[in-house]
Design a protein that fits this description.
By secondary structure, the chain is α/β, with parallel strands linked by helices. 47% of the residues lie in helices and 15% in strands. The longest helix has 31 residues. 45% of the residues are buried.
Length: 287
Amino acid sequence: MKQGLILEGGAMRGMFTAGVLDVLMENNIDFAGAVGVSAGATFGCNFKSRQIGRAIRYNKRFCRDPRYCGIRSLITTGDLYGAKFCYETLPKELDVFDTETYSKNPMDFYVVCTDMNTGKAVYHNCRTGDGKDLKWMRASASLPGVSRPVVINGRKLSDGGTADSVPLKFMEKMGFEKNVVVLTQPAAYRKQTLKNFWLIKLMIHRYPALIKALETRPYRYNKNIAYIREREQAGEAFIICPEESLDIGAMEKDPSELERVYQTGRKRAETLLPKLKEYIKEAASLN
C-alpha cells in the first residue's frame, strides 16, 4: 500500500510541522508521496530535500528581518511575506535549498493552491524544486488580501488552504491508501468565520468566487476534519496534532516562540513515534 503524508498550513504554526518532520527524518521514515498546503508546502519541502533543521533555522534567523515578513514588506512589495527575499534570496544565497537532493528523491511532493477566479483547488507535483516549483509553493502560501496573486500558466493563484486545507481525499484519489496527517490545530479545534472577514472581502472584491470559497471554508474545513477522524478510526489515517492550541501569531517575531512551537512538534512526534512506526510497518506488510 502506498503511504502518504499530508501537511496542513497555518503560518507560524508550521513550526510544529517542522519539528514533526525533523523527527521523522532523523528516524528515516519515508513516504511515497506528500502534499503540503501553505506553510505545509513552504516548510514541508525540506522533507523531500532531507534538510533537517533548515525550516526552524532560517525562520529564527530572519523572523525580525523586514524583508522576510511584516507590514513594511506588505506596503513596499504588496506581499506580507516578501516574495523576492523568501523565494529567491533566502533559498539561493542565505540558507541554500538543496535542489539536487530534492530532485533525486523519488517522493512526489504536491502543493495545493486556490484558483482565484473559480475558488477551486489546484494541485501541482513539484518534482525538481527549481524556481518554477518555488513559485508554486509561494502561490500555495499567498494569503488572500495580503499577497499579490501568483500567476502560473495563465491562472491567478493564492493560498491553498482556502480551497483544500487538509487534502486527505486528494491523496486517497492519487492512490495513497495509508496516510499520516500532520495538523497544526488540536483535536477539538473547529474553524469559525474570520472576525475581519469584511476587510478581506473588501480587499479581494474583484474575485467573487474566492470570497465565496472563504465564506464556506469553515463548514468545509470542519466537515473534512470529521472525515479525517473517521479514517483514523478505520485505521486508514494516522494523525499527529498538538495537544493544545499553539498560541502563536502568523507574524511571530520572537525566535524563542518559534523554538517553543518547533520543540512542541518534536516532542509530540517523539511521543507518537512507536505507534507511528507500527502503523507504517503494518501498512508496508500489506503490499
